[in-house]
Amino acid sequence: xRAEIADTVKLEIVQAGNPVLRQHARPLSLAEISSKEIxxxxxxxxxxxxxxxxxxxxxxxxxxxxxxxxxxxxxxxQKEIPEAQLRERERRPVPFQVIINPKITxxxxxxxxFFEGCLSLSGFSAVVPRARRVRVESLxxxxxxxxxxxSGWYARxxxxxxxxxxxxxxxxxxxxxxxxxxxxxxxxxxGKPVSEIxxxxxxxxx
Length: 206
Prior knowledge:
Oligomer: single chain
Low-confidence stretches: none
Helix content: 25-40%
Radius of gyration: 17 Å
Shape: globular
Largest sheet: 5 strands, antiparallel
Distance between the termini: 43 Å
Mean pLDDT: 94
Order of helices and strands: HHEEHEEEEEHEHH
């Protein structure tokens, strides 16, 4: 394990096409979780996430095939978003969290569809259907068991990051006709309801 993270003083986010993003990441042992290397990796990932900036970062995104992710949706990220949009997305601040070796379960059958981006697909976005509510059982940075029940945008962040740990990207789940550069999203679709965008783009829902 030490060899895996020996060169991670300054982390770099890898982009789609790097094979590490398509590997099923390996779980961490309790001994590894308590190690100095993993503690330092978590702090480096936190800094990398802030600098990007993003609301989540999984270890495969920095080239490490480990079942580890960090998330944080800071209040300051939401200040420029209209209140109506925050309500629609059920988006609220989420404190910093570490999830290790997670198992995710969908709660109920409700789905939500919104545009989603990824630090490893820089410059693009697409509408992605996700479960509205999930339960995640994982270990925290101290190796303690933790159960999270989340809804709305928080649930979306968890699903997105756990996908990374299973070798999946949002493009595997997206409504393909909505895939867009961020420049074009800003020009044509920003602020419009997803249902209206879907009609304009000829999205067919199952």
